[in-house]
Specification:
Length: 520
């Protein structure tokens, strides 16, 4: 594949904390050669240089005006002998559908929610603050987490505009956690928090060459996160290494009286995640290989190489073919999302209080129509309209759709295959839209969708089970990810397997901010 002579890399300043890990930064702070304030200021400057200026990645929708003050207070705590844990003084960005009761907005990228303040921090934000993280700002996203219109543009929101892919500025950043993935990939933060309903952590994580972890539903409280579908929704870490993802999830995971799903959280999960990831986890493991139909030859070759690496590490890889039943799950999955989105958004808006002009999904729909030049210049709100027409969550149609999703993804899917083949985990190719779609035409960034690898995204999402994407290789200068997924509450095992793969491939590459891919 010949490189294109016209490809240019956008000049970028050297960044002293490029590719730094949580452990690296903590070591420097323990040694007294680095402060949280110095670190926070450096990330703010780097955001100004390449997110606001330079190539203008546009991944950060808003900066926290109190970030430096928070960092200074954490430095004072450290000086007084109190260190809260691995995240003490670590700058972290939040996706803009995660509520903060501070001076920042929480809008899901929608102009309809600007100025409407949530009554409290999301539970996960409370846990991050308690862990000593510096909340650096909010990231842009595919508006309303990519579930407003049928031809949603990944990385675009009415409030935030278009986020760019740092590996090729004219390619999709994927969504909906586009800004979080791009910010981590471009070293604009140490870690970010994304959210996923159906691929919104895994897909942008894979496309942007980072680690994205979607936990079991219930591991991280959903309270204070603007919802799509409660059965599938979860927040999770987006980092540059598997170890960092484990440390961030350890801080996020916890029970919350406002989210009943967290009652199932194993008490020892956070403690397990804090431990060093065991070396050589692939040796002796049984891994189910899920195939994705219709992959182009370059992707098939990359996937074959990954399977070869896993086998060489001592794992037994069982070829499962395509994931059973997924073709029949598409319509029920959308049905569940439509029903639950209406109920969830109405409940979230009620939390904003009687003074809020946005009280129901119908109010959001009306606002978007009244402000269509700003809110609907690229796509409409067909999903919103369909959701508004749905009835309550007691409807037989909803209950049947949810049962179908769980049957296909859990009972006859992940659980059955795990038992039949005695599997430790599954693997599948991650999202590959940026590789398959040309710069114009069916690329999501220009309105539409290119082919997208990764059937495991839908399977693990519908099941509410954990999955993690880890960099696998690059093609034409664009990242490709491998997904590990498995049964509920297997995060420690999945992370150990992913870390072993990561150590053997070392496929993560810092983006060069090229104007386009190396070859089309």
């Amino acid at each position: 594949m010949a490189a294109c002579a016209t490809v240019l890399a956008v000049a970028q300043p050297a960044f002293r904390f490029a590719e730094a890990t949580i452990d690296d930064l903590q070591s420097r702070m323990v040694a007294g050669t680095l402060t949280a304030r110095e670190l926070t200021a450096a990330y703010l400057e780097h955001i100004a240089q390449i997110d606001r200026a330079g190539p203008k990645l546009n991944s950060v929708i808003e900066l926290n005006p109190d970030a430096l003050a928070l960092a200074e207070s954490l430095d004072a705590e450290r000086k007084a002998g109190r260190v809260r844990g691995p995240l003490h003084g670590i700058p972290i960005l939040l996706k803009d559908n995660i509520a903060t009761a501070d001076r920042m907005e929480t809008t899901a990228g929608s102009l309809a929610l600007v100025g409407l303040k949530p009554p409290r921090d999301a539970h996960l934000v409370t846990r991050l603050r308690e862990a000593g993280a510096v909340i650096l700002g909010k990231t842009n996203l595919s508006e309303w987490a990519n579930f407003r219109g049928e031809r949603s543009v990944s990385g675009w929101s009415g409030r935030g505009g278009q986020t760019l892919n740092p590996y090729a500025l004219n390619r999709t950043p994927s969504g909906s956690s586009s800004g979080s993935a791009v910010a981590v990939a471009a070293n604009l933060c140490v870690a970010a928090i994304g959210t996923e309903t159906n691929g919104s952590i895994l897909s942008p994580g894979a496309v942007n060459g980072i680690v994205g972890l979607k936990p079991t539903v219930g591991a991280v409280s959903r309270s204070g996160v603007i919802p799509i579908a409660a059965s599938f929704d979860t927040a999770g870490p987006m980092t540059r290494t598997v170890r960092d993802a484990a440390l961030v999830l350890a801080a996020l995971a916890g029970t919350d009286a406002r989210d009943e799903a967290t009652r199932a959280l194993p008490p020892a999960l956070s403690a397990q995640l804090m431990k060093p990831l065991p070396a050589g986890a692939l040796r002796g493991a049984r891994i189910g290989f899920v195939r994705t139909p219709g992959l182009r030859p370059a992707l098939e070759s990359a996937l074959t190489a990954a399977v070869t690496t896993i086998r060489a590490a001592g794992a037994e890889v069982i070829d499962l073919g395509e994931f059973p039943g997924l073709a029949a799950a598409g319509a029920p999955r959308i049905e569940v999302m439509l029903y639950e989105m209406k109920a969830g958004i109405d409940a979230y808006l009620r939390e904003l209080g009687s003074a809020s002009p946005m009280k129901t999904l119908a109010d959001i729909i009306r606002f978007n129509d009244e402000n269509w030049p700003r809110e609907q210049p690229l796509f409409g709100q067909q999903y919103f309209a369909r959701a508004q027409a749905k009835g309550p969550l007691t409807d037989a149609a909803y209950l049947a759709a949810l049962a179908t999703c769980h049957r296909i993804a859990r009972t006859e899917g992940i659980d059955a295959l795990t038992a039949k083949h005695r599997l430790d985990a599954f693997i599948a190719i991650g999202a590959a839209a940026s590789l398959l779609a040309p710069p114009r035409g069916d690329d999501p960034i220009f309105g539409g969708r290119g082919p997208n690898g990764g059937s495991a995204v839908a399977a693990a999402a519908m099941a509410g089970y954990p999955s993690v994407t880890v960099p696998m290789t690059q093609i034409a200068g664009l990242p490709l990810g491998l997904i590990f997924f498995g049964q509920a509450w297997t995060e420690p095992r999945l992370l150990a397997l992913a870390a072993d793969f990561e150590s053997r491939t070392q496929a993560r590459r810092e983006p060069r901010l090229r104007t386009t891919a190396l070859a089309d």
